[in-house]
């Protein structure tokens, strides 16, 4: 029987099928072909060895054959191991390719689930949040305050504006509002920072301004913070053993002084005991600094940071209870010297006053003599006028007046 020729369409289908083979399938076919060739070659070698064997072989020949057989078996073992490794590697690659193909070729249901997955997750999250907000646990919160030394936890929570009815999510998402409330309502607070801890814990970390001095008032002492702000009165029991007292009424002056002190050495600032106004007529911002060592320093507020550091250089050479005047230049004096100078000034002032008083008295005497002379001159002129008018009057009409006029004329 003659073989029928296959139609062209079937040949084309086969060629398309061959071309449709994957890379792994092609490599697998090559590997199988190679393996079959190795088996055939192995059979040939074994057949050749069997034919070449002699029935009467010597001991040496048998030993050589054994060595050769061992070498062949070792090579075969190596090749078998390599073949197994190659098969395992190819199997892994095949699994990977199958997974990739499975991912690429998804069913319509899988595709629908993949598209609907974001919506499902979002809806589930919204549902869970809604259920959480309905429960009392959404308003239950544990608040802890850290970093405070003078401000209490109750004050911080009260100033923040947090209420028991506030939701936990509101505190988490609007924490900046509550932080600003604390800073604006409490002068001691420098900064506030909210931190959330799962599930319902809130930590408020507070940083406070440090107290650098106290202002003395009639009612007590007011702490002055590092930003120059004064806060409420404190009792005597709350005062430290040694502290700086600033007795200035102007808030701006206090802030300037605090700013100047921040630029100075802390050791120098710690040596100052009391700061007050020197009440100078020539320098409006002149300050009087009473030191712990008994000395007094007078320095303008505008030049504190510039001139005050020189005190550390000259204080050791000063006698006790000295006055260091830094108003114009820098020089040292004492209360006794200033008192004598003031007395001399007062004496000179009094002498000048006495001289002026004596001059004024002499001027008054001269003026009095001049006024008396003028008075006598006027009296004489009046008397002459009376004599001239007296003969015209009759004795009958004015008898008394003529007598008086005559007496005045005689006088």
From TrEMBL:
Keyword Translocase: no
Chain ranges of the POTRA domain: 138-209
Name of the gene: divIB
Membrane association type: Single-pass type II membrane protein
Biased composition range(s): Basic residues: 1-12
Keyword Transmembrane attached: yes
Transmembrane segments: 112-134
Protein task: Cell division protein that may be involved in stabilizing or promoting the assembly of the division complex.
Keywords recorded for this protein, A-Z: Cell cycle, Cell division, Cell membrane, Membrane, Transmembrane, Transmembrane helix
InterPro entries linked to this entry: Cell_div_FtsQ/DivIB_C, DivIB, FtsQ_DivIB, POTRA, POTRA_FtsQ_type
Gene Ontology BP, a term: cell division
Pfam families tied to this protein: FtsQ_DivIB_C, POTRA_1
Positions of region (Disordered): 1-97, 341-411
Protein name per UniProt: Cell division protein DivIB
Family statement drawn from the similarity comment of this UniProt entry: Belongs to the FtsQ/DivIB family. DivIB subfamily.
Gene3D superfamilies: 3.40.50.10960
Extent of Basic and acidic residues compositional bias: 13-41, 48-97, 343-364
Intracellular or extracellular location(s): Cell membrane; Membrane
Organism from which the protein derives: Streptococcus equinus JB1
């Amino acid at each position: 029987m003659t073989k029928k020729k296959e139609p062209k369409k079937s040949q084309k289908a086969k060629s398309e099928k061959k071309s449709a083979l994957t890379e792994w399938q092609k490599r697998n076919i090559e590997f199988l072909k190679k393996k079959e060739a190795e088996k055939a070659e192995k059979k040939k070698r074994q057949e050749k060895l069997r034919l070449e064997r002699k029935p009467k072989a010597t001991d040496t020949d048998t030993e050589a054959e054994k060595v050769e057989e061992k070498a062949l078996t070792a090579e075969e073992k190596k090749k078998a191991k390599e073949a197994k490794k190659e098969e395992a590697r190819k199997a892994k690659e095949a699994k990977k390719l199958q997974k990739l193909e499975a991912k690429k070729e998804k069913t319509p249901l899988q595709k629908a689930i993949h598209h609907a997955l974001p919506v499902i997750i979002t809806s589930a999250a919204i549902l869970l949040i809604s259920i959480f907000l309905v429960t009392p646990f959404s308003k239950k919160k544990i608040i802890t305050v850290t970093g405070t030394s003078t401000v209490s936890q109750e004050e911080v929570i009260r100033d923040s504006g947090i209420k028991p009815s506030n939701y936990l999510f509101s505190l988490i998402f609007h924490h900046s509002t509550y932080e600003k409330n604390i800073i604006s309502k409490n002068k001691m607070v420098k900064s506030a920072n909210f931190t959330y801890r799962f599930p319902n814990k809130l930590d408020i970390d507070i940083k406070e301004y440090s107290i650098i001095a106290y202002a003395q008032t009639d009612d007590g002492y007011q702490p002055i913070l590092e930003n120059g702000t004064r806060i409420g009165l404190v009792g005597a029991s709350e005062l430290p053993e040694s502290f700086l007292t600033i007795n200035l009424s102007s808030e701006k002056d206090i802030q300037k002084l605090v700013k100047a002190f921040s630029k100075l050495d802390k050791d120098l600032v710690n040596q100052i005991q009391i700061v007050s106004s020197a009440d100078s007529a020539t320098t409006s911002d002149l300050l009087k600094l009473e030191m712990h060592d008994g000395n007094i320093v007078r320095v303008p507020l505008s030049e504190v940071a510039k001139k005050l550091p020189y005190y550390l250089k000259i204080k050791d050479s000063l006698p006790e209870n000295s006055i260091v005047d830094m108003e114009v230049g820098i020089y040292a004096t004492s209360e006794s010297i200033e008192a004598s100078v003031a007395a001399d000034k007062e004496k000179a002032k009094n002498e000048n006053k006495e001289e002026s008083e004596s001059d004024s008295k002499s001027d008054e005497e001269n003026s009095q003599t001049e006024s008396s002379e003028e008075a006598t001159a006027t009296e004489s002129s009046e008397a002459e006028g009376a004599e001239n008018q007296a003969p015209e009057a009759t004795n009958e009409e004015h008898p008394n007046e003529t007598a008086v006029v005559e007496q005045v004329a005689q006088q």
